[in-house]
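User: Could you go from structure to sequence for me? I need the amino acid at each position, not a summary. Structure tokens:
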């Protein structure tokens, strides 16, 4: 029973890292993003292969160049190999937009999956290896700008740098 309870605690911790990964990309929180990976984690994204410490500046620059970004990952399927190592797989959807010449925002909706290896060091779980697999891509055109639409007035934040005033420590 003790092992089962510990695995549930560890699954929750891994799930929170996955949510932090999405949130820190979307809010452009570089320090939070770095806390998802061990610096020596091996990363394979197709456009980048190497260590996490080298990947983070590349991915954060990519995200800063978007007018908006939105990441959502599914609950992961996790298998433990030992009390300090695990593998997981989860599906992800990403939507992003870039400024167009006419002043509009357009981009893509992308679906894929994350194949992650995890290590627990000093009682903390982080990604030790990640492979991303792109499954599909679809265009997103005519995205809303940053002013409320009078017909459907929902707020739309412009997040183009870290430290947005609505970002909260969680």
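Assistant: Here is the amino acid at each position, in order:
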């Amino acid at each position: 029973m003790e092992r089962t309870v510990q695995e549930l605690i560890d699954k929750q911790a891994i799930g929170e890292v996955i949510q932090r990964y999405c949130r820190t990309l979307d809010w452009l929180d570089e320090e939070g993003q770095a806390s998802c990976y061990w610096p020596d984690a091996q990363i394979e994204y197709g456009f980048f292969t190497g260590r996490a410490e080298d990947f983070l500046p590349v991915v954060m620059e990519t995200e800063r160049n978007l007018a908006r970004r939105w990441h959502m990952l599914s609950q992961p399927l996790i298998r433990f190999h030992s009390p300090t190592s695990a593998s997981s797989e989860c599906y992800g959807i990403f939507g992003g937009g870039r400024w167009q010449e006419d002043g509009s925002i357009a981009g893509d909706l992308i679906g894929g999956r994350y194949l992650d290896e995890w290590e627990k060091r000093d009682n903390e779980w982080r990604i030790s290896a990640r492979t991303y697999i792109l499954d599909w891509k679809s265009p997103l055109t005519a995205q809303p700008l940053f002013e409320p639409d009078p017909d459907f007035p929902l707020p739309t934040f412009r997040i183009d740098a870290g430290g947005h005033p609505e970002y909260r420590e969680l």
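One structural detail worth keeping in mind: Residues 2-142 form a domain with the Nuclear Transport Factor 2; Chain: A, fold (CATH 3.10.450.50).
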